[in-house]
Amino acid sequence: MLDDIAIYIQMLLEQAQLTGNLDLIEEAIRQTQYVVDHFYSDEEKFFYFSNKNQTDLIIRKIDYYDSVIPSGNSVMFQNLHYLYLITANNKYLSLSEEMMKKVFSIATTYPSSFSNWLSVFLNYFKTINEVTYATQVLNPDNMLSIHRKFIPNLLVMPLFRENSNYAWTLRKKVEGAEKYYLCRNFSCLPPLNNLSELFGNIGE
What is the pTM of this model? Predict the structure, then answer.
């Protein structure tokens, strides 16, 4: 079922942001490819609710309305956007933008039925602050200080060792004192030395 896998991918990405475990990113990428291969409609530009291999259904439906629980499509929209920011893979950008084009008009007309969509749309229209916390040893108090701030357009992830596999981690040094890298649209400021400098630049 789409909703289950979409929320699982969302959980993987959120856990990666808290722990810096890049294996979780790899699992999110694998699961996302599975969803694209088995649930995506090239014609409708959305994801079906059921797997294409499920044979006991008369018809496959597409559900993109949010209710108390966000729809699987709106969660996948967010997942694709975050994976694009992490990997710079244009496939994720293309899929998410096609979804946004299809749903934007109706979502802004009937906002109560598209609450999660509209929340994620803000990250398209207001640039996300992409923060990398480069440190050899994670300081939980620093992570807590970041997450206590109300910064809705924020994506933050610890980095414990240098890694060139993702756009997110590329050219980020992990040596000596901890540093914070603040990037927007893959363009980064020089490393920042402390949280005061980070918050000051985010507030600009």
Answer: 0.91
